[in-house]
Specification:
single chain; 238 residues; mainly alpha
């Protein structure tokens, strides 16, 4: 199967064929329609579900991946894109877990694929993990992406792209580019959407674990611009 994403052409992948065959045979056998309906309602009908609780889903994933070789970037891309084409949300969760596991095997050339995943069937359940664990990993490995990509993403009209830019440093701790973190928060401080305002507070709260004084000073300095939700979230543990 060949899939095309702007800027990326994915070749056929025997590994992807094998993984997808196993995955689509294994997951449906454990489906729980009642749990699926509850999950779909909780996620605001963003997608249908199979109804697999996370511990069971990850156990099944281990079965699917047993004995498979380590993938290269093209194989990761093929698996992720093919999972995203399937309707049930658990397949996207499988793809996110797979990319997190193999993020060090990905180059900056994977970023267009990551953007496609962020902007397709978008909701916090996949976007946040992609931001912190995949996009964040790519930028950490190639800091040039900050200027070439993240500075553009924070300006994007798509709120999920902007949210990804806000959250991509979530796990950086001492390696956080503080100047950019604060600048991104100011840039989106007037955004009307809950998910952006919440993300501003979340990334500040997380960085406060590393430098509480810097976050406290920033919030006090910019309190007039920041939404009350962002301020509450940022100072929650201070």
């Amino acid at each position: 199967m060949s899939v095309t994403v702007p800027g990326v052409t994915v070749p056929r992948s025997g590994l992807a064929d094998s993984v997808m065959e196993r995955l689509t045979a294994t997951y449906p056998e454990a489906a729980d329609p009642q749990r699926a309906a509850q999950a779909q309602a909780y996620m605001k009908d963003v997608a249908p579900f199979l109804g697999l609780p996370t511990p069971l889903r990850r156990e099944l994933s281990r079965t699917v991946l047993a004995g498979t070789p380590r993938p290269d970037e093209a194989e990761c891309t093929a698996i992720a894109l093919r999972c995203w084409e399937l309707p049930e949300r658990e397949y996207a969760y499988f793809a996110v877990d797979y990319l997190r596991r193999h993020v060090k095997r990905l180059s900056s050339g994977f970023l267009p694929v990551a953007r496609h995943l962020v902007t397709t069937v978008s909701w916090w359940d996949t976007v946040d993990a992609l931001a912190a664990h995949v996009v964040g990993g790519l930028v950490a490995a190639d800091p040039r992406l900050l200027k070439s990509e993240m500075d553009s993403w924070i300006e994007d009209d798509n709120l999920w792209v902007a949210r990804t830019a806000l959250l991509h440093q979530l796990r950086y701790k001492d390696a956080t580019d503080t100047e950019r973190l604060f600048a991104y928060c100011v840039r989106q401080s007037g955004h009307p959407d809950f998910f952006i305002r919440k993300a501003i507070g979340w990334c500040l709260r997380e960085y406060a674990k590393t430098d509480p004084d810097a976050v406290r000073d920033f919030v006090e300095r910019e309190r007039g611009r920041l939404a009350p939700l962002s301020v509450r979230e940022a100072l929650k543990n201070l």
